[in-house]
Structures are given as C-alpha cells and as structure tokens.
Amino acid sequence: MTRLAAAARRLRLLAATFLLGTAGSAYALNTQAIVSAALSPDCLEYRVVGICYWLSCGLTGCTVRTSVKIRHYVPDAVVSAYSNTGENPWIEVRPMSTPNASAQAGGDGTTGHSGENELAKFKNADVIGHPAGEAFSRFASAFGYTCEGAGTAFIPYLLSTLDTVAWRYNVPEAVYPESLIPGQREIGGRTTLDLWGNVYPRGGFLHQADDYMSGAVVAQRAGDIVTRRGQPHVYQPLLAQSRDGYWPAGALVESDAATGKWQELTPTLSSSCAVFPHADPQVQAQRGDYAWALWRPYACCQRRGQIFLGSIDFQ
Predict the structure, then answer these.
(1) 87 is in which domain, residue-wise?
(2) How many Å apart are CA 221 and CA 104, to the nearest integer?
(3) Are 136 and 147 in contact (CB under 8 A)?
(4) Residue 232 lies in a domain
(5) Are the C-beta atoms of 81 and 216 separated by less than 8 Å?
(6) What pLDDT, in 10s, does the model give residues 137-175?
(7) Structural domain total, the chain
(8) What's the pLDDT tens digit per position in 50-73?
(9) Is residue 9 part of a domain?
(10) What's the pTM?
C-alpha cells in the first residue's frame, strides 16, 4: 500500500506539473510566435499601385527612367493592453514595464453584481517594436521590391508605467473636446449599436463591460499616440520621414484600414488583420491581457536616377 500510495502521489504531482505548464503556455506570448505570425500574406497586402519617374544623367546625357510603385503593410509594433501592471503577455519584454513608485496596481473595478459595467476598467499599454525584422524582410521580398517600416525591433515606443500622469490621471486630455463631446473620435458607432469605446482621453481607464473590447480600445489609444508627434505623453513617435520615392504611414485613425490594421496575437493567434470594431470571434483573456501586431501601410519605388520627377497612381 505504501508503494502504491507513493506511486499515486508521484503521478498526481506529475499531472499537476503538466497542467500548470499547459495553463502557463495558454497565456504566454513569446517572440517566436510573434515572428511566425508576421508571415501573413493577408496582412502584408502587397500591391503594385503606380509608376515612379526618375531623371538619370550620365556622360552621354539624361534620360527618364521608370520604376514600379508598390504598397504593402509592415508590422511596425506589438501593442499590448493588459490589466495587471508588470504582466505584459509578451514574456520577453516584461522587464521593460515593471511596477514603479508611480505605477503599481492594475486591474478592474468590480463588485460581482450585474451593474458592474458602470465601473471603470483599467489597462496598461505597451508599444514595442515588432521583432520580425529579417524574417519579415525575406518573406516580403518574395513578392518583389519592399518598403521599410518605421519600427525597430524591441524598441519601446510607449510604456504606460512611465506615462503615469497622462495614462492614469488623464491629464490634460480629460478636458479635450474629443473627451467631452459625444460622437467624436469613437471606435464604432452609436447608431449601428457597435460602439466599442472612445479614443479620448487616451489613458488606461474606460467604461466597457466587454474585456476584449476594452483591450482593443486601449490598444487603439496607444497606437494613436505613438503615430503622432508632440502629444502630451511620455513616448517616442513611431513615424518615418518621407523622401524621394518613399511614402511612409501617417497618423493612425480608428476604423480606417488605410492608416493601419491589427493582427491579434493573444489570446488567439490570427493569420489575418482587421480594424476595430470587427465581427470576428472575440475571445476573452482569462487574465485580462491582450496583444496585437500593428501593421501600417507604406509605399515606395526603386531609385532609378539622381532626380525624382514624381509618380502617378493607377487609382
């Protein structure tokens, strides 16, 4: 009996260890998974959109040469929205946003009653350069000439734990017209009954009973900040400078795929991209942590001369 009991105890211990490991992996998002997800033709959306003209001069004179103008999306960043401070679902970057003296707790206001949708939810947000790098470049180059994105792998563009005044107290955006006037800068619509939330104030608090939608709205807020310059937040702009034959993405605008789109990474890993709001299945994260890859559109053409004369688009 003693041996049987010991054996049974060992089996129970092994089973518990396995289940804990499996549970942990269900919430874990690692760099390898993010890189693999970036190899998505749907999100890339590679297109030939026009023709560029270049003036090429040499010893025998000058000629006008042409090159194809292409447009495609680039995964610039991974945007995480999560409830518990210091628990970014992307495991390898968690040390970037650990709790500090001004950003400690997290989570939602909840009572367990049916009316708790009136209480505020809170989520941290991190915007970190997408790690795909060379793997994405090889993948995209199989379609033809490619454009460079604005993001640099593993560079933090926004960490809400360092943006305490704006992120946790909504200063000064709580008094902006976009925050006070209904119908301005909203994700979804009131008349279509698919309102997910308001972009302003761009902080971590919002009123939304659905946790997935809360995470999406917070991710959109973070993306909105980093794709603009001169915002009252602690961040680095995620923007590239235009140049001859290169047209980078501009400001991210909610529900407008022409400015950027989202690929869900956790709690489910998607091979396609969409904008918020969307009708795709929305899985609630048990720990309140979500992450999306932010794909942004870039257009460019190969240099064929010393002087850029201009371009024409097919549409």
Answers:
(1) 31-313
(2) 21
(3) no
(4) yes
(5) yes
(6) 999 999 999 999 999 999 999 999 999 999 999 999 999
(7) 1
(8) 999 999 999 999 999 999 999 999
(9) no
(10) 0.88
